[in-house]
Design brief:
Shape: globular
Number of helices: 26
Largest sheet: 7 strands, mixed
Distance between the termini: 68 Å
Strand content: 5-15%
Length: about 650
C-alpha cells in the first residue's frame, strides 16, 4: 500500500483529503520528518511541533495564491515537504541543496525569506496592503495572508510594532497564528512569556475567572470596566485583551495538534475581514519522546539514529563558544563588576554554566537585540562591566543602539561576537560577514579577532579592561586545538604579532607579507611556506597597527590582506586606508576575503575553499597576482610558470 505522503506533490493534493486521511498524513509526515532530519542534521524539535499546523494551513488556504510567512523559518520543514520538496530534503542545508529556512528563490510557496526572528507580521502586513492596492482584497476569491510566529518571537518589539500598524487596517485579510510551544531556542523569559503561559490550564483560567467575579463584584465601577473587556478576570489573565487593544480579533487558545479543532477554526477565520489572531498550543518535539523531553538538545542536532537518540559527544576540541563561556566564569570570579547579557542565546553562546554560577549577574533579555544593547549601556552607566554575548548576524539588529547608546557615550560594553564569518549549514542569513565593516567605522570602538583559543581569552580580558566599547569577534565551531588555559592576561592595544619573517631579498625573488586577521592566520601560515613571506597576526582591526603596516610596505613587494569577511570595507580596506593616510611608499596590494555576494549554506571548509580562503586558494591567488605584476611591468616573456620560479 502506497504511503499517503508519497502521493502529495503539492498542497493541491491534500485539499481533497478527508479529516481521517489528513490525520494519517500528519502521522506519516512526522515519521518522515524525524528520519529525514536524523540523516542530514537540522532543526528537529520545532518542526515536529508544526506538523498538524502545516497540514491544516495548506488544506484550508489556497497557497501559494494566499501568502504564508513562517517566522524565523526553522519551523518550516513540514511546509517544505508538503510543497513539493519531499525528495529534496535529502540535501537539506548541504551544498547545492535546499535551505533550512524559507527562500523566495526556492519555491513559490515561500512567500518571504525568514531566518531572523519576529519579521513575519511586518512582511505579511506589507503583502496584505500590497494586495489591497492591487484590488485583490475583495470578493470570495480574495487573497489572504497568514503569519505564523512563535511565542519566543513575540518577545521582540518588532512584532508589536507590526501589530500596532496592522490594527488600524480593518479591510485587509491578515491572520497571525501564535504557535505557542513555551519555548524559543533557549527557555523563554520575560513578562510576556509568563503572561501567555497562564493560559495553558483551563482549570486555572476558570477558577481565576470566578474569583475575579467575586472580587470585582464589590467594586461596581471596576466590574463594569472588566465587563467591557469581555468580563471577569479574563482581562487580567488572557492575552485577548492585549491583542484586541492592538486591533486584532483574538481566538484561542486551541490545541495545535488537533486537526478537528484546527481545521474548522481556520475555515472560519478565512472568511473574516480585518486583522485576526489565532493562539494555538503546540509541543516541541511532538511525537518523538526524546525530543519532547529535551527539546533544546534536539533543537538543531547533527546526524543521529532515531532509535538510539543523541549520543554523548566524544572528546573534541573546545568550541570558541565554550572558550568564551569558561572565560566568562573565570573573569566574573575575578571582577565582581562583570555582568552578562544575552538576547535568548544562552546555550548557543556558551553561557549555561555562568547562568548557574552567577544567576544575579546573568540577564537573558529574550529575543530583543536592540534592548540588549541599550540595557547593557544602562548597566555600564552604573559602573558595571557588561558583556553582551551575541551572534554577529544578530548584532546587526542592534546597530543603531550600538552607535547612539554605547559608542557615542563611550561606555565600556564588551561585545563577545560569536558565529563570525561563514557559518556552514545555516547559510547566508546567519553568516557574520559584515561586522568588521560596520564596527570599525564607529568612533571609540576597539575591534579584535583572535587567531586561536588562548588569544581569544586574552582579547576578552583586554576588552573587559578598557574604558570604551570593544568587540571580540570569533568564528563558529572549534578553534585551532590550542589549550586556552585559564589566564586573564591582556594584550597591548593596537599591536600586531609577527609570526614569521621573510628572508632577505634575493635576485628576482619577491618578498611577500601576509596580513592575516582572526581565523585566516592558520591558512596564511600554511600558504606562506611556498613563498619568501612574512606572516603577521594583525589581532586588532581597530586600532590597526598602522606603524607595522607602513614598515612592511617599505620592504616587501606585495602585501596580502586575508580575512573571513567581505572585502568591501573590511580589514583589508583598513590597511589600504592606513597606507594612503601615511603617504607610504607604493607597494602592491592583494585583498583576499569574501566576495560581494551572499554565500549559500554548505560545509564550512568547502565554502571557504570555494572562496579561495584555504591555504591552497590563498597561495594560488598570490601566484596569480605575482604574474600580473610581472606583466604590468612590461616583462611579457614571463609567464605564470616563470612567476612560480620567484617563490622560495
Amino acid at each position: 500500500m502506497t504511503a499517503l505522503l508519497e502521493t502529495i506533490e503539492s498542497p493541491l493534493d491534500l485539499r481533497d483529503l478527508n479529516r481521517r486521511q489528513l490525520k494519517t498524513l500528519a502521522d506519516e509526515l512526522r515519521e518522515f520528518l524525524l528520519n529525514s532530519v536524523a540523516s542530514t542534521g537540522g532543526h528537529l524539535s520545532s518542526n515536529l511541533g508544526t506538523v498538524e499546523l502545516s497540514v491544516a494551513i495548506h488544506h484550508v488556504y489556497q497557497t501559494p495564491f494566499d501568502r504564508l510567512v513562517w517566522d524565523v523559518g526553522h519551523q518550516s520543514y513540514p511546509h517544505k515537504i508538503l510543497t513539493g520538496r519531499r525528495q529534496a530534503m535529502a540535501g537539506l542545508r548541504q551544498l547545492d541543496g535546499i535551505s533550512g529556512f524559507p527562500r523566495r528563490t526556492e519555491s513559490d510557496y515561500d512567500a518571504f525569506g525568514t531566518a531572523h526572528s519576529s519579521t513575519s507580521i511586518s512582511a505579511a502586513l506589507g503583502m496584505a496592503l500590497g494586495s489591497k492596492q492591487k484590488g485583490e482584497h475583495q470578493g470570495p476569491n480574495r487573497r489572504r495572508h497568514i503569519a505564523v510566529i512563535g511565542d519566543g518571537a513575540m518577545s521582540a518589539g518588532m512584532a508589536y510594532e507590526a501589530m500596532n500598524n496592522a490594527g488600524i487596517h480593518k479591510d485587509i485579510d491578515l491572520l497571525v497564528i501564535l504557535n505557542d510551544n513555551e519555548m524559543s531556542i533557549s527557555p523563554p523569559v520575560g513578562a510576556m512569556s509568563n503572561y501567555l503561559a497562564r493560559l495553558l490550564t483551563g482549570r486555572f483560567y476558570s477558577a481565576a475567572r470566578e474569583l475575579g467575579k467575586q472580587v470585582l463584584g464589590v467594586v461596581p465601577p471596576v466590574l463594569e470596566i472588566a465587563r467591557r473587556l469581555e468580563g471577569g478576570a479574563k482581562s487580567l489573565i488572557s492575552p485577548s485583551t492585549l491583542f484586541e487593544e492592538f486591533g486584532f480579533n483574538y481566538f484561542g487558545p486551541i490545541d495545535g495538534h488537533d486537526l478537528d479543532a484546527l481545521i474548522p477554526a481556520l475555515e472560519n477565520l478565512r472568511e473574516l475581514k480585518g486583522p485576526q489572531f489565532l493562539h494555538v498550543i503546540t509541543r516541541k518535539g511532538r511525537g518523538y519522546g526524546r525530543a519532547e523531553e529535551d527539546p533544546i538538545a534536539y533543537h538543531g542536532p547533527g546526524k543521529f539514529n532515531p532509535a538510539e537518540g543523541l549520543k554523548a559527544a566524544g572528546v573534541s576540541k573546545p568550541t570558541y563558544s565554550q572558550v568564551f563561556g569558561q572565560w566568562l566564569c573565570d573573569a566574573a570570579g575575578a571582577d565582581e563588576r562583570l555582568v552578562a547579557v544575552t538576547p535568548a542565546m544562552r546555550e548557543g553562546s556558551g553561557m549555561v554554566e555562568f547562568s548557574k554560577r552567577f544567576p544575579e549577574r546573568y540577564h537573558d533579555v529574550a529575543i530583543a537585540e536592540q534592548h540588549a544593547v541599550t540595557f547593557a549601556a544602562g548597566l555600564a552607566c552604573e559602573g558595571l562591566r557588561p558583556v553582551v554575548a551575541i551572534y554577529s548576524t544578530f548584532l546587526q539588529r542592534g546597530y543603531d543602539q550600538l552607535i547612539h547608546d554605547v559608542a557615542l557615550q563611550n561606555l565600556p560594553v564588551l561585545f563577545a561576537i560569536d558565529r563570525a564569518g561563514l557559518v556552514g549549514a545555516d547559510g547566508a542569513t546567519h553568516a557574520g560577514s559584515y561586522d568588521y565593516s560596520f564596527l570599525r567605522c564607529i568612533p571609540n570602538m576597539v575591534v579584535m579577532a583572535p587567531k586561536d583559543e588562548p588569544e581569544c581569552r586574552a582579547m576578552l580580558s583586554t576588552g573587559l579592561s578598557l574604558d570604551c566599547p570593544s568587540a571580540v569577534r570569533y568564528p563558529r565551531g572549534a578553534g585551532m586545538g590550542v589549550d586556552a588555559g585559564r589566564a586573564l592576561d591582556v594584550l597591548p592595544v593596537g599591536k600586531a604579532e609577527v609570526l614569521l619573517k621573510a628572508g632577505k631579498a634575493q635576485s628576482g625573488q619577491p618578498r611577500i607579507a601576509f596580513l592575516a586577521f582572526g581565523s585566516m592566520v592558520g591558512p596564511c601560515l600554511q600558504a606562506a611556506s611556498q613563498f619568501n613571506a612574512t606572516v603577521v597576526n594583525m589581532r586588532f582591526i581597530k586600532p590597526l597597527d598602522t606603524a607595522l603596516v607602513v614598515e612592511l610596505a617599505q620592504d616587501h613587494d606585495l602585501l596580502v590582506t586575508v580575512e573571513e569577511h567581505v572585502v568591501m570595507g573590511g580589514a583589508g580596506s583598513a590597511c589600504a586606508e592606513a597606507l594612503s593616510a601615511a603617504a607610504a611608499p607604493q607597494t602592491a596590494l592583494l585583498h583576499l576575503g569574501l566576495p560581494d555576494r551572499f554565500i549559500d549554506h554548505g560545509d564550512h571548509a568547502k565554502l571557504l575553499a570555494m572562496q579561495g580562503l584555504d591555504a591552497q586558494g590563498i597561495a594560488q591567488s598570490v601566484t596569480t597576482r605575482l604574474t600580473q605584476l610581472l606583466q604590468s611591468r612590461g616583462d611579457k616573456s614571463r609567464t605564470a610558470a616563470a612567476a612560480l620560479t620567484l617563490v622560495s
